[in-house]
Amino acid sequence: MGDASGRLFADATHDEFGTWMLGYTPYGGGDYGDVAAVAASVGDGDDGAFYDAWVAAGDRAAAEAGTAASAGHRSSAEELYLRASAFYASAYHPLYGTPVDPRLLHAYRAQVRAFDRAMALRRTPVRPTEVLLPDPAAGSVRMPVYLIPAPGHETEVRPLVILVNGYDATITDMYFASAVAALGRGYHCLLFDGPGQGGVLYEQGVPLRPDWEVVVAAVIDHALESAIVDRDRIVVSGWSLGGYLAPRAASGDTRIAACIADPGQWDLGVPVRALLQRFGATPHQVADPALLDDAVLDRLIETVRADPGLAWGVLRRGFWANGVTDLRGFLTQTLRFTLRDRVAGIRCPVLLTRAENDPLAVGVADFAAALSAPTTVLEFAAAEGAGEHCEMRNRSLLNRRVLDWLDDTLASHDRP
Known about the structure:
The protein is an alpha/beta fold. It has helices at residues 12-18, 32-42, 47-70, 74-91, 102-120, 171-184, 198-202, 212-223, 242-250, 269-278, 283-287, 294-306, 308-322, 327-334, 364-370, 395-411; strands spanning 129-135, 139-148, 158-164, 188-192, 229-239, 256-262, 350-355, 375-380. An 8-stranded mixed sheet has the order 1-2-4-3-5-6-7-8, sandwiched between helices.
């Protein structure tokens, strides 16, 4: 039942990654018992033990899924393959960084196989497709795309929710965290990996880019090739870093009828600049990391290395996902993620979430004030069990409120 700290996993980083799945439980993700069993298997083990325990759980679920499928139990097989995909996806976050760990690629590929097998077992099978995105460095990027029709409405023209991931979640995470609830409300859903995300990062080595309007425009072009998509009811919804990427997409594409940002973010440089000032950077240096003194960077890197969470988030995930090799490059790249010069381009209704204890939500009020489009801010409190980043401890509460807003917003949306 966990230790005195309330954690299931002995290691704090393992507990953060290992308990993500509890937010997916209402939507067919792993149950508490699945997570607790893996935690018991890991014990005081290291990242390798964490990886091995989750992969073993994924292997067991995938094997059981195969047995169920052979016996004609399609529903059980679909459920088990989805659960296996979530188990594999839980295994490799502690292994982030370059050079890419072969174990990460092994688990990721097993995750995709399990997810694809589950999608193929749906009443209307879903097959992954690819969107080719021109890229100035890579030439072109192959973005995996899943367009999942709402159950019971597979051939109907209905609104489409394009779901946008953040830094380190994958299509599997987004499916459980957002898609299942939206599909249940009758929305078709499109899931994809973009630059710096999932397979595009892991397999192709393509980093994040701030101009997400280009990325989503290519996805919308692809979606409109489907006869079931209502071209006047296209929604973009992002979580975590997607809370910046989704509004960025809306700032450059008038085909988007509504935008959801969980949490709302319009300038990733705000916390970066505040941090640099605390470490003695001048206003000029804060504006341009190329001017930073080495002494400031040295003090900052020492602080980052001393904190396991920061070390993982910046030195391993942050460097890799942004395609940089040092702290100066990471800071420079992060400052490019801003909507301050584009916020006026957002014309559709916008929903911003703000969880009480989410540090990424600190700029929501400023973002809302800068928007001229109809804007709603939804507050989530710790007292509701939803005060943490992306409301991961109560995703069902988040989804109910967000989808109620979306139902009302699209109902009042005037067709051109």
